[in-house]
Amino acid sequence: MAGVTTTLNRTIAWDSAAPVRAETSEFRRTLRRFVRNRGAVIGAVVLLLIVLVALIAPLLAPYDPLVQNPTLSLQPPELLHPFGTDTLGRDMLSRVIIGSRQSLMVAVIAISIAASAGTLIGLLSGFYEGWVDLVLQRLIDIQLAFPGILLAMVIVAVLGAGLGNAMLAVGISLIPAYARMVRGSVLSTKPNAYIDAARVIGCGDLRLILVHILPNVAAPILVLSTVGVAWAILIGSSLSFLGLGAQPPFAEWGRDLSEGRNYLSVAWWISTFPGLAIMFTILSVNLLGDGLRDTLDPRLRQR
Questions:
Q1: What's the mean pLDDT when you consider all of the chain?
Q2: Which of 55, 140, 154, 274 registers the highest number of CB atoms within 10 A of its CB?
Q3: The CATH number of the domain where 57 resides is what?
């Protein structure tokens, strides 16, 4: 009897540990597929460095980016000022470092707004279909009639120029992409047998959406959010370039790029270094997003 009990206990322990080992094994396989993508790894490393710079920007900046020194106006890159100075004598290296905080903050908050609202609309539209789907999708169609940057400009023009309004405008302009993608994922998930089984055992709509459907569309949302960061940075910088985003004297890549456009022939460094910061950030985000897509999409996995 004791032997049977011991065997039974071991069997139960093995069965309970099996799902944990399966999840760990699947995670390792996913991580292995991601690491094999060199572009994704390079993008992740570069983006991690940029984020780290933004987090500790006050410690890295050699000068105060807001302090003006007219005697050092338009100084070319040198040892004391590796990125040169602008028309007011402000150190461009410090402005690029501090500006990373503003540009990344715009992207993160804008993507949070777009992902939250777009996911909610997509879930409701795909799950209930019928008139709910009709109404929500027609509203999305109206929004899609405007190019993203144009819609963001209109929103900022109505609300007023400023970094906060720019974040909101960028977030609203990116909602349709999430709504359409989540809706399609929900429509492809609903016919599965486990959804019908959950209904049979008494699961309500809210539990079905949050427990059984949302986890299955999480991977596409993650990939789209990663790629969306690049779009958010680009649109946010464009708004600041046009004077609708960050306002002087705050350091922001798009704003500094705009301030240097009139001095390209005599002070190329004012626009060049903020422009390079935007380029490398967007490139790293796109590489990371492509790698996540190849890793998480079952149709693109390389066995």
A1: 83
A2: 274
A3: 1.10.3720.10
Supply the pLDDT for residue 27: 66
Q: What angle do CA 80, 83, 86 make, to 5 degrees?
A: 100
Q: Which one, of 5, 26, 22, lies nearest residue 296 by Cα?
A: 26
Which segments of the chain does DSSP mark as H helices, in order?
2-36, 38-55, 57-60, 92-128, 130-144, 148-159, 163-173, 175-189, 193-200, 205-207, 218-241, 253-259, 269-296
Strand partners, 85: 91
| Tens-place pLDDT, residues 53-111 | 999 999 999 999 988 888 888 899 999 899 999 988 999 999 999 999 988 998 899 99
Q: What is the DSSP string of 13-56?
A: HHHHHHHHHHHHHHHHHHHHHHHH-HHHHHHHHHHHHHHHHHHT
Neighbours of 147 (CB within 10 A): 10
Reported residue count of the chain is 303
pTM of the model: 0.80
Is 149 a member of any domain? yes
d(CA 130, CA 266): 61
Evaluate whether residue 225 is within a structural domain.
Answer: yes
- What is the residue whose two structure tokens read 């009897």? 1
pLDDT at 23: 52
Q: Write phi, then psi, for 151 (nearest 5 degrees).
A: -65, -40
In-domain check, residue 53: yes
Residue 216: alpha-carbon gap to chain centroid: 20
Q: Are 236 and 169 in contact (CB under 8 A)?
A: no
Identify the domain containing residue 50 by its residue range.
Answer: 42-63+91-300
- Mind giving me the DSSP string for 64-84? -TT---GGGTTPPS-SS-TT-
221 domain-assigned: yes
SS3 202: coil
> What confidence tens digit (pLDDT) does each residue in 206-225 have?
888 888 888 888 888 888 88
